[in-house]
Specification:
This protein is an alpha+beta fold. It has eight helices and twelve strands. The chain binds zinc ion. The site of zinc ion has 7 residues, from loops.
């Protein structure tokens, strides 16, 4: 007996994303429903690498380009929300390309490894594997990134202090955590206007987000007490419907997204006039966050709704 063809929402694509010219390979393995669009896949790749989604991107499927609709040039680019993964990976087309930041030129090979049946006990999309850290944004292509790593490895070199300052604090090129990738994926999911196909998935347990530093994204061990910062939402922003849940703040000047819990009406924070609470791991991250928030408030002057993603 031949089983009826299952709908694309129950077919799960196992996809491997690898950064071209990375050596050792910088790669991620993700599971996503075949009904998802290339636009959804863009969000997934941004979250699990992670990139900051602050540059243009484009997919190449065969010889057809797909991208975001708001681009102002390039007439021959198709709408990425109009093509599903099932359609993109059709026939012998098992590898497509994803380009991010046309300046630095981060090219990714996106390979369909397998199609598996949805496991009702699991949530999708989800990251299930990967190795090595994503290069910091704007590190100047694969060559530029590896140059910086070489400079970092030589404390006596003349450029060392500058590059050390430029790199994110505690950057480890070999670091990758599936768990953190999935936290970023959930955050991105909450933040994404595009909407996800199966929106009824349970959100990341807030209890866990409370133990992740909003700035450096490291886990805050249970033995350590976290610091928190209160933030006032922009005037006119009503946070009441989101009480107790997490939102993502765009700290624009720092090009970072930080998770923040919406203060409940009866909380101490609210009584002090704060609407959102951001948790960080210690003084260092707290001061970096403070600087970013101050810059941002200055930049955002009068920009209503700025603080709520
Ligand atoms: Zn931290």
């Amino acid at each position: 007996m031949i089983a009826p063809k299952s709908p694309d929402i129950d077919r799960i694509c196992q996809i491997r994303v690898v950064l071209k010219d990375s050596d050792p390979p910088i790669w991620r393995r993700v599971l996503a429903p075949a009904a998802y669009t290339l636009g959804d896949l863009h969000s997934i790749i941004q979250a699990v690498m992670p990139w900051t989604d602050s540059h243009m991107h484009e997919f190449l499927v065969g010889d057809v380009h797909y991208g975001a609709p708001d681009r102002e040039f390039e007439a021959d680019v198709q709408e990425e929300e109009d093509i599903s993964l099932a359609e993109a990976f059709r026939g012998r087309q098992t590898c497509i390309e994803y380009a991010y930041d046309f300046g630095d030129g981060w090219d990714h090979f996106v390979e369909l490894e397998a199609i598996v049946q949805r496991d009702p006990a699991q949530e999708y999309p989800r990251c299930v594997g990967g190795e090595n850290a994503c290069p910091p944004e704007n590190s100047g292509s694969m060559d530029g990134y590896y140059d910086k790593l070489r400079i970092l490895a030589d404390p006596k070199g003349p450029q060392h202090p500058f590059i050390k300052d430029w790199m994110p604090l505690g950057f480890d090129p070999t670091a990758f955590s599936v768990e953190k990738a999935n936290i970023l994926l959930r955050m991105r999911e909450e933040d994404d206007d595009a909407g996800w196909v199966d929106a009824d998935n349970e959100a990341m347990a807030p209890a866990r987000l409370d133990r992740i530093c909003a700035w450096c994204r490291k886990e805050i061990s249970d033995s350590r007490s976290a610091l928190s910062r209160g933030v006032q939402a922009s005037e006119g922003v009503d946070t009441s419907r989101l009480e107790g849940s997490f939102v993502v703040l765009n700290v624009g000047s720092a090009m970072r997204q930080v998770p923040a819990r919406v203060a409940t009406a009866d909380s101490q924070a609210k009584r002090e006039g704060k609407d959102l609470i951001i948790t960080v791991c210690g003084e260092k991250c707290a001061s970096l966050l403070d600087v970013a928030l101050q810059e941002d408030v200055a930049m955002a002057d009068g920009d209503e709704g700025h603080f709520l993603a």
